[in-house]
Inverse folding.
């Protein structure tokens, strides 16, 4: 019996039907605002995995191409690409004299080296270029630096020697300056925070309303009808806010919009902190703790982390009060206890009892001077100098705890070199076992940077001497 | 050359001397300016700004008053930036700020046939010829055209001369210098200004 349609035609119909069915299903799911991961071409890198529930953070325009993604990268990362240490800024490659370089590698677009959704080729720091990508432009480095002649291009980033975005951090003269330093420096202390002394130069600070002078309980300006509990009284009076003249109303009197008068609120939230700590908040939102808030999403919760975390903290959310509490504005708590209440990886769990922790305890009990103990924050949220205007700067805690993590040699300047010699610190940072046990023991790895710098210097001096002798 | 006015404005702002206006036209006609005149004007501003920095900041505070050092690693050494660095940072800031100003399109750099940093050696044929010409013909500039990345450019090269003893000593003593016999008044390199042109 002859059928109406041939087998081939049936197959065509089946294919069209399945295609339309799938198209319809995906369209329906899209309109239903279903799980965005359904449409994701591949898992996100460790740096962006917190955005898996919100494609539009990066894909701001559904019809946009490379430039839209580039803009999204800049929305979050532009400030990190600034001088003085970025030796590969986009302006270098836009210079017509480097047009030939762009033919080797498109260094103008972040995606050239950081392609998302490609876990099979994604390396540390979200890099998706082959590890020897420096060769595109520096193939003749052996001629310029004899010490580099036999080195493979797969080793450029070893030991933190070079990295694309802050290649000027560790330069030859800097290494020479730190030759032959002892394991422990004679003076071991981190810089002091100076917000209080810098307040005078911060125009936005409400100096008239909250002058920098210590407050007593009688001066607390909560409205009638509000009763302070004993613990709140104690916490406020014994920590930095009362000591710096920051009264109740500074945080609890909140204006919802500019049009309405401020009204008392019992739970003011992060916006109260931002009034005076905008620098800290901006840096917080640049790191993994606050990046969701910066993107307008709900706060990061601990169960979203990729690192091992304490199970009882799984549902804790990350905001200012997560680490600083309310009224107990004791930065010592924020510097260690807050971290360890969530983080449960090998390095974090090994902190208590480590040499750094012992120094921290000794500082707390007054056996060591302020700034000589080593907390989690000492290394991961170092005290840095930040510009607060064209004319002034202040030393504050960098609340972007992701900023100096990778490559970890970024910690040299911001943390390690306050107490340790360069050679010891570089070796320690290169030893993954030492990092895991939180620096109990000596480095088992040796980085050659100092030797190479010395050899380059000696070679240059010998050539000079030879030239002088021949004249 | 419709963008010349805005280029000059950008140049003035970027180099910190305020708005610059150069009008080469008869009353009532559209102002015009040649690439050469524009490059010469740009160079005049750049060179003057650096001369002021060298004389009133670096030379005065380092040599005369002795109150501060000038150092290549000025940040780590808590010192003044070298005049050549001040010049380069200006070039980088112009490049950065002009990214948002499509009508402003020029670039400049400080190069040398004997660079301390090899990245500042001439790369293109015009740069090489220009630097050689200004070194061999004191007091003269070099002008040429070249095509880079599919765009045609007017390229001007101006001699950069050792005007102070400190220029000579720093270059001769630097461990990475390929030339150690510079004398006062020698041409040490050149300023290269590049302006896109049609054609």
């Amino acid at each position: 019996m002859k059928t109406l349609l041939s087998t081939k035609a049936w197959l065509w119909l089946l294919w069209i039907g399945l295609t339309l069915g799938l198209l319809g299903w995906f369209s329906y799911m899209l309109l239903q605002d279903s799980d965005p991961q359904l449409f994701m071409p591949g898992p996100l890198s460790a740096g962006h995995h917190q955005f898996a529930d919100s494609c539009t953070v990066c894909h701001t325009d559904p019809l946009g191409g490379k430039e839209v993604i580039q803009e999204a990268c800049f929305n979050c990362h532009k400030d990190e690409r600034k001088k003085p240490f970025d030796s590969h800024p986009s302006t270098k490659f836009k210079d017509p004299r480097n047009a030939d370089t762009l033919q080797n590698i498109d260094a103008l677009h972040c995606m050239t080296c950081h392609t998302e959704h490609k876990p099979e080729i994604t390396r540390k720091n979200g890099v998706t270029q082959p590890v020897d990508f420096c060769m595109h432009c520096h193939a003749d480095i052996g001629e310029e630096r004899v010490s580099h002649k036999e080195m493979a291009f797969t080793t450029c980033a070893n030991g933190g020697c070079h990295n694309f975005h802050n290649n000027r951090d560790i330069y030859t003269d800097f290494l020479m300056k730190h030759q032959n330093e002892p394991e422990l420096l004679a003076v071991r202390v981190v810089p002091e925070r100076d917000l209080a002394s810098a307040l005078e130069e911060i125009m936005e600070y409400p100096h008239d309303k909250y002058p920098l002078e210590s407050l007593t309980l009688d001066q607390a300006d909560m409205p009638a009808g509000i009763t302070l509990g004993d613990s709140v009284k104690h916490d406020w009076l014994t920590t930095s806010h009362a000591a710096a003249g920051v009264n109740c109303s500074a945080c609890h009197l909140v204006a919802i919009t500019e049009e309405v008068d401020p009204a008392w609120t019992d739970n003011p939230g992060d916006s109260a902190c931002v009034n005076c700590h905008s620098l800290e908040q901006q840096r917080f939102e640049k790191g993994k703790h606050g990046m969701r808030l910066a993107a307008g999403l709900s706060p990061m919760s601990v169960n979203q982390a990729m690192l091992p975390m304490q199970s009882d903290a799984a549902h804790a959310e990350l905001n200012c009060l997560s680490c600083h509490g309310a009224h107990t504005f004791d930065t010592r708590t924020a510097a260690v206890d807050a971290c360890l209440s969530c983080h449960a990886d090998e390095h974090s769990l090994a902190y208590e009892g480590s040499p750094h922790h012992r120094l921290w305890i000794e500082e707390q009990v007054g056996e060591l001077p302020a700034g000589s103990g080593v907390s989690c924050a000492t290394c991961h949220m170092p005290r840095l100098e930040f510009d607060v205007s064209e004319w002034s700067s202040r030393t504050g805690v960098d609340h972007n705890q992701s900023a100096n993590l990778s490559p970890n040699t970024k910690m040299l300047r911001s943390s390690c070199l306050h107490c340790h010699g360069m050679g010891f610190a570089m070796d320690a940072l290169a030893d993954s076992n030492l990092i895991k046990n939180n620096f109990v023991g000596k480095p088992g790895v040796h980085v050659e940077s100092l030797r190479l710098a010395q050899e380059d210097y000696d070679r240059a001096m010998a050539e000079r001497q030879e030239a002088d002798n021949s004249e | 050359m419709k963008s010349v006015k805005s280029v000059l404005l950008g140049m003035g702002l970027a180099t910190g001397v305020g708005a610059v206006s150069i009008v080469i036209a008869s009353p009532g006609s559209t102002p015009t300016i040649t690439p050469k005149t524009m490059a010469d004007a740009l160079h005049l501003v750049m060179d003057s700004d650096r001369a002021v920095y060298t004389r009133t900041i670096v030379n005065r505070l380092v040599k005369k008053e002795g109150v501060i050092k000038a150092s290549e690693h000025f940040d780590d050494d808590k010192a003044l930036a070298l005049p050549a660095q001040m010049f380069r940072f200006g070039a980088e800031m112009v490049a950065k700020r002009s990214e948002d100003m499509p009508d402003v399109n020029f670039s400049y750099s400080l190069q040398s046939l004997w660079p301390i940093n090899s990245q500042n050696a001439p790369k293109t044929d015009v740069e090489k010829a220009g630097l050689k010409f200004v070194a061999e013909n004191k007091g003269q500039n070099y002008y040429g055209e070249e095509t880079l990345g599919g765009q045609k450019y007017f390229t001007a090269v101006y001699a950069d001369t050792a005007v102070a003893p400190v220029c000579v000593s720093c270059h001769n003593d630097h461990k990475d210098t390929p030339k150690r016999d510079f004398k006062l008044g020698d041409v040490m390199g050149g300023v290269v200004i590049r302006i896109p042109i049609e054609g």
